[in-house]
């Protein structure tokens, strides 16, 4: 699109939105009208819109705002960006004293155990959208996977699509069980890889899932809202799922789930920030690592070490799948003064913590760990409470990074 055509389109859209603005104010009040100022709701131009699988529901007409709970690919005006920056600067101007910050590390397990004891597995929705955004979770790159049954092969199709509205209904609290920065002495189920003899008297490693041809690890699994959609989809494949969380209560809830099957899933207690803790599988044995709303709960100074260590367990060609909070998400801007631990890092009223990433930070995080970028996107959406006539700007990061193959010998 040339500059003349772009300018004409801009003028046309601006005039149209201006004519509709009075109706929008009548629907939602002055505060919501600000959300639609200028062209903040327009679809990205073909030149600027990335090819991302982050939804296709575009709000072209502000009158339609309350027809759905979520709108995709929302752009912000420069004024909205500046207002968000100022709001974040304001709510971080008063930080929690350093001598008090340690509590959020030492008592992290207790905070989350109390949470799971209260809510059990009823707080979060299952993430049925996972395979839409992360098809790499399937052993095959195609839409069907195969398993060997004698001399025959059968196929298992992908589940039908669903959006992420159920995931984001809990936007006002938390999105996943975090792995805090604390190292503790709680009992661990991950005692490392054992060694035993086979029939030929040759020592070989023995570990859960050792015979699987495709292995997935989810870190910070909580009560299994990602695990069980994965398990139920890969049942007819030669895949195995590991899932860990530092909350013993959460892991017990996973094991008590009716879909838990230790022949294809292994849940264990693990603090991913503990440098001395071992995993129940060897290095370079994983095809996929999944971290959904987990790394944001770790102190920013610790995150790099966590990603570095996790990456050593990926096979060459293995994928690290990441989804988490983005800078200036609605949940960041509504923090009150006195909840900030450090820049863009906050603690909630229940003691859990959250950091808000940028694209550049995510890129550096995984690149320093030696992974190559496949996808690194800022997912901007408008979440709508149609009952209360309230709209909220949501910002998430979604990324995929691959462990490269070593160079061929010359």
UniProtKB/TrEMBL annotation:
The keyword Acetylation does not apply. Keywords: Methyltransferase, S-adenosyl-L-methionine, Transferase, tRNA processing. This is tRNA N(3)-cytidine methyltransferase. Its EC number is 2.1.1.-. One of its GO terms (biological process) is tRNA processing. Belongs to the methyltransferase superfamily. METL family. Residues 142-159 have a biased composition (Polar residues). It holds the Pfam family Methyltransf_12.
């Amino acid at each position: 699109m040339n500059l003349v055509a772009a300018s004409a389109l801009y003028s046309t859209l601006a005039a149209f939105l201006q004519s509709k603005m009075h109706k929008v104010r009548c629907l939602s009040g002055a505060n919501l009208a600000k959300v639609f100022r200028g062209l903040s709701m327009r679809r990205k131009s073909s030149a600027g819109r990335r090819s991302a699988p982050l939804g296709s529901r575009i709000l072209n007409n502000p009158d339609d705002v309350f027809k759905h709970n979520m709108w995709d690919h929302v752009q912000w005006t420069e004024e909205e960006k500046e207002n968000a920056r100022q709001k974040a600067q304001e709510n971080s101007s008063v930080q929690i004293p350093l001598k008090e910050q340690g509590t959020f590390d030492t008592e992290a397990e207790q905070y989350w155990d109390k949470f799971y004891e209260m809510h059990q597995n009823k707080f979060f929705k299952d993430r049925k959208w996972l395979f839409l955004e992360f098809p790499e979770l399937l052993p095959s790159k195609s839409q069907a996977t195969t398993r060997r049954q004698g001399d025959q092969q059968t196929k298992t199709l992908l589940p039908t699509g669903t959006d992420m509205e159920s995931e984001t209904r809990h936007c006002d609290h938390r999105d996943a069980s975090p792995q805090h920065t604390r190292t503790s002495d709680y009992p661990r189920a991950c005692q490392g890889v054992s060694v035993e003899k086979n029939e030929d008297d040759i020592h070989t490693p023995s570990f859960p899932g050792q015979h699987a041809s495709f292995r997935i690890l989810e870190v910070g699994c909580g009560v299994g809202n990602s695990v069980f959609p994965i398990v139920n989809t890969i049942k007819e494949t030669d895949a195995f799922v590991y899932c860990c969380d530092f909350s013993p209560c959460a892991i017990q809830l996973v094991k008590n789930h009716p879909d838990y099957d230790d022949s294809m899933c292994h849940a264990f207690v693990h603090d991913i920030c503990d440098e001395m803790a071992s995993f129940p599988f060897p290095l370079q044995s994983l095809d996929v690592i999944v971290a959904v709303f987990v790394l944001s709960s770790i102190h920013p100074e610790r995150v790099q070490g966590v990603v570095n260590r996790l990456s050593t367990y990926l096979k060459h060609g293995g994928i690290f799948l990441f989804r988490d909070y983005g800078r200036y998400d609605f949940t960041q801007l509504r923090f009150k003064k006195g909840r900030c631990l450090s820049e863009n890092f906050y603690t909630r009223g229940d003691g859990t913590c959250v950091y808000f990433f940028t694209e550049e930070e995510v890129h550096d995080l995984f690149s320093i760990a030696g992974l190559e970028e496949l996808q690194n996107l800022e997912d901007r959406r408008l979440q709508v409470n149609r009952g209360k006539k309230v709209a909220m700007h949501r910002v998430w990061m979604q990324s995929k990074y691959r462990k490269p193959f070593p160079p061929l010998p010359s």
